[in-house]
Amino acid sequence: MADHLSKWYGKVVGINDFSVEIGPGVTGLLGPNGAGKSTFIKLLVGALRPSKGKLEVLGERVWGNRRVLGRIGYCPEHDGIYDDLTGAEFVAAMGRLGGMSADEAARRGLETLEQLGLAKAAGRLLREYSKGMRQRAKLAQALVHDPELLLFDEPLTGCDPLARVQITKMIKALGGAGKTVIVSSHILHEIESMTDEIVLLYKGQVLAEGNIYQIREMIDNHPHQIRIECDRPRELGQRLVASEDVRAIEFPGEEALVLETANPDGCYPLIPRLALEQGIKIRALTSPDNNLQAVFEYLTRDRGPEGVAPRDAQGRRS
Amino acid sequence: MGIRDMGYKPYEGDLLPHRSRYRVLIRRALSLAWASGLVKTTLILGAFPVVICGVVMFLKLQAIQYVSKMAAGQAQGLISDPGDLVFTTIYWCQIWFAFVISLLVAAPTIAEDVRTGAFQFYFARPVSRNHYLVGKVAPVAILVAIISMGPALALAILRLALAGSGAEAASNLKWLLGTLVYGPLYALVLALPPVALSSLGRRAGGIQGLWASIFFLSWLLGEGVAAGANLPYLALLSIPTDLRLVGQLIYGLPPAYAIPWVLPAAVLLALVGGSAYLLLRRLGRVEVFS
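Output (structure tokens, whole complex):
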């Protein structure tokens, strides 16, 4: 529970007057880079000290409170892993720091790595791991001591599609088992795949919180761009422009087109279908809006001169 | 989907008390240090002087006995007692190895954690800043003590074992007791300052260079100027010389410089205290930003 929580680094504001209450289950922290997601998570894990306001985790203040820290599992965004340890050694070492005996930490470490699909790589040095494998090793160390509160900062970064599915399933399962799981991301569909409950952050403040579908609706009103890299962009563009979902098309290069749509859910299946019909080879399909920055700017522009949605009677923003 | 569907089992074992973190961190750091080939080589090479000094001690005692027999008890003072090899070993021989250990293990210890961002793993666990500090200083002090105090203790025990009488053993007990007092101080002086320096930056190489400069330049300037200009008090600038003067006091040997013993002791105390203060200031309330 955060009550008017603020954290600033010198003159830079990390989060500002932040009030939120998060219960069991999976909650997504969604916001563009610099929104304050990592700052909030670090405050929750006691790595940062609040500058102002009140923060309680599992009913207790968290800064310097070892009792609470033992009940938290944290997977940071950045690596910071000792490369000369094997996956099993790393996870076991973290279990030991969590208070487990050497035997228990080793046993649980292997068990957790196995759950995350790293059983075969457990004996390999972390420096030999791919980005996705390192990510899973970090998740394993967060889970090894079976904490009540799990904090995952951008957990899907760098993971391959299979690992994404595996981690997403695990996060949902943890939430389903009654644990409190907080996951941060700047990518909407990542959060959508894990939970319906989200807290929308922007410039260090809570912009909105609640069900993802309401927020999705707001976001969907914003024109969405899709960049397609293919061998015959003009031919594909001709077919696409006939669709009522497509608002505009640009050709930024010889082998690319960018379309603007108000209905991305309708467009994403349409593109491969048309390409298949025409025999056009698509090399890449990306959304320049993925970092959410444009969407958030759009949302805040619509919501008053301060750029932040007004609070309701409970102090929540809608 | 329930969590058990994924094969996940809640942990039902016991958790160890918070004080166990000291042991965990120290063991972890020691095993990491032992994994380094350079540290292992230094520790192995550091065992050679004690073997040589042990042989010298034995031969010197044989020579004393021989001359004593030949001169029918008139040999006293012709050959000095080899007990002072204990101090020669711990100071003159082992200081090089102890310094290398401090350079390899102490100087990078916190800087590496800052560089790799490992703080986020430590301090998101029930690990206090004190756990962390002790877990960083103690392994270095233990390794320095192994390489310095270990050989001196072995020689002191050898001297007692080679004593021909109870009275001779009693008169040589000072080498053992002196080492037990001097060894921990010696280890702290070579462990705390480089660990404190390590908290100042993130580049291990830079910290190592700084520590080597402080150690050797102070030695060179302090002793060089003190001897050259006949200004004994300048020797206080040298960390190794202060260590030497305090050692000579503890072992009851004549001091290298005519300086009141309290001064080098105060310099070492200030060095250790200042380093501890710096560490507490730097890490006591550290926040993890990245």
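Chain B touches chain A at residues 1-11, 13-18, 20-21, 24-25, 28, 32, 35, 116-128, 285, 287-290 (CB under 8 Å).
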